[in-house]
């Protein structure tokens, strides 16, 4: 394969996976938004819906992890394409290799933003699970702290 065809192939490969990365992230935003809406709705009847909120929080944390791993994979594929493009780029039109050599100027990359989003939403899912488990404990005693305290008072031997 000549250099021109190799460069063209690498650009198409890069374009495909860069577009795929954005599409996957868009799906993540939609799915996590639906889960957050479900969690908010389930919290309206807290602690009675503790199992539901715990399940939704667990799904949110798991979904965040899965999409994080998908993003890692696509990011690796994009970096492979960038290495090939940097090798075959014409000297007078260095786009990929010149941006890699540039000093960071405080701008966040897509990867950094995506990882932050996955981390925040995953942590939120874990917090929802913990709060829901607390609610499940309350629900087992009648559903409120006051009922739980009365339950302890009623259980003292005469």
Description:
By secondary structure, the protein is an all-alpha fold. The chain has one domain. 80% of the residues lie in helices and 0% in strands. Helix 1 runs antiparallel to helix 2 (50-88) and helix 2 runs antiparallel to helix 4 (110-140). It is elongated, with a radius of gyration of 25 Å. The mean pLDDT is 84.
Summed up, the domain count is 1
Content-based structural category: mainly alpha
Strand content: under 5%
Point out poorly predicted stretches.
none
The overall strand count is 0
| Gyration radius from CA atoms, angstroms | 25 Å
Brief overview, please?
Helix content is 80%, strand content 0%. By secondary structure, it is mainly alpha-helical.
What secondary-structure arrangement, pairings included, does this model have?
Layout: H1 3-43, H2 50-88, H3 96-101, H4 110-140, H5 145-154
Helix pairs in contact: 1-2, 2-4
Key structural traits:
158 residues; mainly alpha; transmembrane helix; membrane; transmembrane
């Amino acid at each position: 394969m000549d250099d021109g065809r190799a460069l063209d192939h690498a650009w198409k490969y890069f374009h495909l996976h860069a577009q795929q990365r954005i599409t996957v992230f868009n799906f993540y935003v939609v799915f996590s938004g639906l889960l957050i809406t479900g969690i908010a709705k389930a919290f309206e009847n807290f602690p009675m819906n503790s199992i539901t909120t715990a399940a939704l929080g667990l799904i949110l944390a798991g979904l965040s992890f899965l999409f994080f791993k998908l993003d890692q994979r696509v990011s690796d594929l994009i970096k492979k394409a960038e290495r090939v493009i940097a090798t075959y780029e014409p000297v007078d039109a260095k786009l990929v290799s010149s941006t890699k050599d540039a000093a960071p100027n405080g701008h966040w990359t897509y990867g950094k933003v995506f990882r932050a989003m996955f981390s925040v939403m995953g942590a939120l899912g874990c917090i929802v699970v913990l709060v829901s488990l607390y609610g499940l404990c309350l629900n087992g005693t009648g559903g409120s702290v006051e009922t739980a305290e009365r339950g302890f008072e009623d259980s003292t031997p005469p």
